[in-house]
Amino acid sequence: MSAILSTQNLVKKYGYKIVSNNISLTINKGDIYGFVGKNGAGKTTFMRQVLGLAFPDSGEITLFGGEPLNTARKKIGSLIEFPSIYKNCTAYENMKRMAILTGSSDKCVRKILDFVGLGNTGNKKAGQFSLGMRQRLGIAMALLGNPELLILDEPINGLDPTGIMEIRDLIIRLNTEKKITFMISSHLLEELSKIATRYGFIHDGKLIEEISAVELSQKCSDRVLIVPDNPQKAAEILSKIMPPQQIHIYNKSVYLDSMIDRTGQINKYLVENGVTVNQISIHAINLEEYFLRKVGA
Ligand SMILES: Nc1ncnc2c1ncn2[C@@H]1O[C@H](COP(=O)(O)OP(=O)(O)OP(=O)(O)O)[C@@H](O)[C@H]1O
């Protein structure tokens, strides 16, 4: 697997605030990399550094196996926050403006507009577009110059369910048909989980975990949920009959990674050892819960 983007101990401070705290992250060719973090976690700042719009205090950015950053950045398209669209221009006119900067042909402009589903918008001004159409136009503009990597900052933020579905489908088609690698930031974790192949979780400027979608779904699969009167005591007692690393306390509950077929025995064992069990069940966690647990929320 070849890395398209990697950073080594990237640090960025604004005043005393460390916004990128030693971030070492890798995005491989073909990934749809979900960059997940709460508001203010440092997602945009990280992306801006990759794009050369903000400058790290220390650390390194490696693009496309070590090409000089200025030339390598020409292979990256981006949509950071809101697309810069002229509201009084049509989709085609907006694209033509951008095409001058990237040296793209008219044929290429029309092809991309068709691909993103805006080929038939005719004389309609972008100001009359839905938010979803505007986001698709933003992506279309980012596609000029044939990027190998697209960096999208919160591309589905504020979209209605149809808009979200359209952007999701577009990303999947660009990834599978055009072989474009994606880095997508979002705090809408459930939505991201429908497309991401790998994730990076960021919290308070720190990359707390990188994990593949397959590994994540294994980690989020069924486990035992126990609601005891005393979670600490329950965990301590259970650690005598199972590996302690498979026992997690979260939100006054105890979760066990194994023992799914032994809930009756667990219940009996805890009660015999003086723990009252208010609830014991099988529970699959979702991405949101997983992330919140990771960041200790
Ligand atoms: N130019 C700047 N000057 C000072 N502080 C900044 C600047 N840009 C960002 N910050 C601060 O850095 C922190 C991280 O911001 P950033 O926008 O990178 O987070 P984010 O994860 O993208 O969040 P959001 O989803 O809200 O945009 C925030 O506390 C923000 O206020």
UniProtKB/TrEMBL annotation:
Molecular function per GO: ATP binding
Highest taxon in the source lineage: Bacteria
Pfam families the UniProt entry points to: ABC_tran (PF00005)
Gene3D superfamilies, per database record: P-loop containing nucleotide triphosphate hydrolases
Keyword vocabulary terms for this entry: ATP-binding, Nucleotide-binding, Transport
Domain ABC transporter: 5-229
Family statement drawn from the similarity comment of this UniProt entry: Belongs to the ABC transporter superfamily.
PANTHER family recorded: ABC TRANSPORTER, ATP-BINDING PROTEIN
Protein name: ATP-binding cassette domain-containing protein
